[in-house]
Amino acid sequence: MKFLLDTHLLLWWLADSPQLSAAARDAIADQNNTVFVSAVSLWEVWLKVSLGKLRLPPEFDEVLAAQPFEALPLTAAHARELGSLPWLHRDPFDRMLVAQAISARLTLLTADSAVGGYGPAVMVV
Question: Fewer CB in 10 Å around end: N or C, the chain?
């Protein structure tokens, strides 16, 4: 399968957090899956760091670079898909990740049940 990680799952994976469910851990670790990380997630991370809402370990960039993740840039097609989404969730980063998943035919992995309302493009784990 092809998965897109929600930002919190990315951070939990990189930190080896116990908050990451076994199902999420298995999906990310399965070498038969292709796992994408969106530029949107990195935008969200660095925005929260700049606002003082998130602290990262000094080796964050190195740990991320060592992962076998594929990069997913933000495109005009993704932005266009966002315009067709119903307002089930208000977080702009989550909404854009859903739009990217739909547009790129990926499954968004998230622990946020509110995002799960967007249907088969989202898997709550």
Answer: N
- Per-residue pLDDT of 91-113, as tens digits, reads 999 999 999 999 999 999 999 99
Q: Which residues contact 34 (CB under 8 A, 6 or more apart)?
A: 1, 2, 3, 70
Range of the domain at 41: 2-124
The pair of three-digit structure tokens given for residue 23, joined into one six-digit string: 């199902």
* Domain count within the chain: 1
Between the CA atoms of 85, 37, 110 and 61, what dihedral angle is there, to the nearest 10 degrees? -130
**Is the entire prediction scored with pTM above 0.85?**
yes
Q: How far is CA 59 from CA 20, 55, 65, 77, 86, in A?
A: 20, 12, 10, 33, 38
DSSP 123: E
Which CATH number do you get for residue 46?
Answer: 3.40.50.1010
Residues in the chain: 125
Instruction: Say which residues have a Cβ less than 8 Å from residue 44's Cβ, sequence separation at least 6.
Output: 7, 93
List, in order, residues 6 or more apart from 108 with CB less than 8 Å away: 3, 4, 5, 6, 97, 98, 100, 101, 115, 118, 121, 122, 123
